[in-house]
Design a protein that fits this description.
16% strand
């Protein structure tokens, strides 16, 4: 189990190029540590909630032994981007002053192609179990969000997960729902070890671990669009939602098993 004790903070120093994917407009950017990152902006699309989902999903994935690029908190200075000629990008940079999410850029990585490469059933089952837990709708044949890099499989981009947080009122009900979209998962046919993986991963994902991962979320991301709700209350909802999903994993496990039939 690979547990991150703290997340590095970096300063964005150079905007390299946009990655025009959907409406979120992430970018490749350089930081003051000399590394390139895929930079995801809190001022884009669905705001900090997408960054929170991406962060939680990525760190849970890392904790259960999956390969995930390092994530950092990337500070964007107020003056950054003033000389950017593209008005859409300049506006995004202006809205994203402060902490954003940086994901280490895997130079030379290629998208995983299920038609070309089959993967180990246990690994496939871990990824499928993770996405069922997180309610991740974005790991399909059309968009696998997996990369082949140096002969290994890396998973990325969990921003579409945890969609319960777009409607807080019924999070308890959402935590007990099966995940019907698992039928479209790119690894469904290869995930033949779900029962064993379920047993193993529930032991790894302790209450202490979930608390720790959620505690790392920047406070400013949690203050967005939650008038009258304290940051501690919001953290507690994320923790309780995840712990409920884990302890009731038989619900989404059965859905996945039925989808494989």
């Amino acid at each position: 189990m690979n547990i991150i004790t703290e997340i590095r903070n970096v300063q964005v120093t150079r905007y390299v190029t946009p990655l025009r994917e959907g409406g979120s407009l992430p970018a490749i950017a350089e930081a003051n540590d000399g590394f390139l990152y895929v930079l995801k902006f809190h001022g884009a699309g669905q705001g900090p909630k997408a960054l929170i989902a991406d962060f939680i999903g990525g760190e849970i994935a890392r904790a259960i032994g999956l390969l995930v690029p390092e994530m950092v908190f990337a500070e964007l200075d107020k003056a950054f981007g003033r000389t950017e000629p593209d008005e859409e990008i300049q506006e995004l940079l202006r809205k994203s002053e402060g902490l954003n999410l940086g994901v280490h850029y895997l130079s030379g990585a290629i998208s995983y192609d299920p038609a070309v490469t089959k993967i180990d059933p246990t690994l496939a089952s871990k990824i499928l179990w993770l996405d069922s837990l997180l309610m991740n709708v974005d790991r399909t044949a059309r968009n696998t969000n997996m990369l082949s890099w140096h002969g290994e499989l890396w998973i990325i981009d969990h921003g579409a997960s945890l969609y319960f947080h777009h409607q807080w009122d019924n999070w308890e009900e959402q935590s007990l729902k099966p995940f019907a979209a698992i039928k479209d998962h790119v690894l469904l046919a290869q995930a033949s070890e779900l029962n064993q993986v379920d047993t193993d991963l529930k032991l790894l994902l302790s209450e202490q671990l979930v608390h720790h991962i959620v505690s790392l979320i920047p406070e400013k991301w949690l203050q967005h669009d939650h008038d009258g709700i304290t940051v501690n209350d919001i953290r507690k909802v994320y923790i309780d939602f995840l712990l409920s999903r884990i302890s009731n994993s038989h619900i989404f496990l059965n859905e996945a098993m039925n989808a494989r039939k």
